[in-house]
Specification:
mainly alpha; two-stranded antiparallel ribbon; single chain
Length: about 400
């Protein structure tokens, strides 16, 4: 066990000495060949996690790599990006808990999930809503394959190391089949209320013990709802592309729609200097007390933007624009050096503690679609991260590509 822990420490903190620097060449126009080439070269040196310790496959290096590669593949159509993406998603599926010899989690069963910590004596092993995000990452790969051209009947050049399917299409079908099993046996059973379709944590003492006291039978926080929505939405899109299971598509989409409708029902619209903005909390609550912070808020925005882009959940641009206004008119503060803006640590404009306002990255960049003037602001705020952060760079390039009105590369 000691050797495993030391190895994991090295994995998470070993520097990427050989990584090529990422680039964003300009503030306007479609993604360029040079930007894609630099991104491909950089991603070859990013390590592929083999376990989900520390949520490496959720919002850690595994999860962010999959989403970043997927974004650049969608705008460029460069198949090398998809091939590298599959090395991550194959490893994710291979790391899922084994139903015969895997860890017994808080349910008392060897669930088809991705535990994020080593077992501790006297404490049940935790797995929860983060499972939905891993499902979403893997299902995103399947979706990209299923929406691509006839070439998906070709063999994946990796030699099928895990036996998940030799062709691109076979790989996608295996992903979808396995991920449905996780949703059916764990997520729907424990996190979706059958009467309302709303997400609540399990009403089980063992869940409380595995997570933290007071966690049971409570509304799932918004960022974690977006993780669950990620899995359901991407699988619904896969089944829709396959045309194989309309009832499952309807069931999955009804769950996502319930979640996003609940969010907009609870979020409060406010006016700031004549601009419509939002105020919202970490989890559903009335009255509002625990206002959302910027880290979790990025997941909220990302999940809602993903649902918006699909056009399947009734979310309009007018509903999304107040998030961009919140960034510009509630959270923004002048940078100490006078170079651009920094942003408060909470979405209500407060900055708890002694930490000064910082940058916004990741899914916050998606909001540039609804306020194009936000793009140069977030580019400036993230200039120091562009060279080494695939997540930041991919989101900037994807946002700029969409703002340019250029065609998407995937056909």
């Amino acid at each position: 066990m000691k050797g495993l822990l030391l190895g994991l420490v090295f994995f998470f903190f070993a520097p990427l000495h050989a990584a090529e620097l990422l680039i964003v060449e300009s503030l306007e126009g479609p993604v360029t060949a040079a930007e894609v080439t630099a991104f491909k070269n950089h991603m070859r040196s990013v390590p592929v996690p083999k376990v989900n310790l520390g949520n490496a496959m959720v919002y850690g290096v595994g999860g962010t790599s999959v989403e970043s590669l997927g974004r650049l593949y969608e705008v460029s159509g460069d198949r090398e990006l998809l091939d590298r993406l599959l090395t991550f998603t194959d490893a994710m599926l291979a790391a899922r808990n084994d139903p015969e010899i895997g860890q017994v989690i808080w349910t008392g069963e060897r669930e088809l999930v991705w535990p994020n910590a080593l077992p501790k004596e006297g404490k049940p092993v935790y797995a929860g809503s983060e499972t939905g995000d891993v499902v979403g990452h893997i299902a995103s790969a399947a979706r990209l394959i299923l929406k691509s051209g006839a070439w998906t009947a070709e063999a994946v050049p990796d030699g099928d190391p895990y036996g998940f399917g030799s062709t691109y299409r076979d790989r996608a079908l295996r992903y979808v089949r396995e991920l449905d099993r996780t949703m059916d046996t764990f997520v729907i059973r424990w996190f979706v209320r059958p009467d309302s379709r709303r997400y609540f944590s399990p009403d089980e003492p063992a869940f409380d013990e595995a997570s933290r006291p007071g966690s049971r039978n409570r509304p799932v926080p918004w960022n974690q709802q977006m993780m669950l929505n990620h899995g359901f939405q991407r699988l619904a899109e896969c089944h829709d592309l396959l045309g194989d299971d309309p009832s499952r598509v309807e069931r999955y989409e009804a769950i996502v729609r319930t979640s996003v409708d609940w969010f907009f029902e609870m979020a409060k619209r406010i006016s700031v200097d004549g601009h419509e903005c939002y105020r919202w909390t970490y989890a559903p609550e009335d009255p509002m007390r625990h206002f959302e912070d910027s880290a979790h808020g990025g997941y909220d925005v990302g999940g809602l933007y993903r649902a918006y882009l699909s056009g399947r959940y009734g979310i309009s641009a007018d509903q999304m624009r107040p998030f961009a206004n919140t960034v510009l008119h509630v959270m923004a503060r002048p940078a100490p050096d006078g170079a651009g803006l920094r942003f408060t640590g909470r979405t209500d404009g407060e900055n708890p503690g002694t930490r000064p306002p910082g940058t916004l990255r990741g899914h916050w960049i998606d909001l540039c679609e609804f306020a194009p003037e936000l793009f140069p602001v977030l580019h400036q705020a993230n200039r120091g991260r562009i060279k080494s952060s695939p997540d930041t760079t991919a989101n900037l390039l994807s946002a700029r590509h969409r703002l340019s009105g250029a065609d998407m590369g995937v056909r």
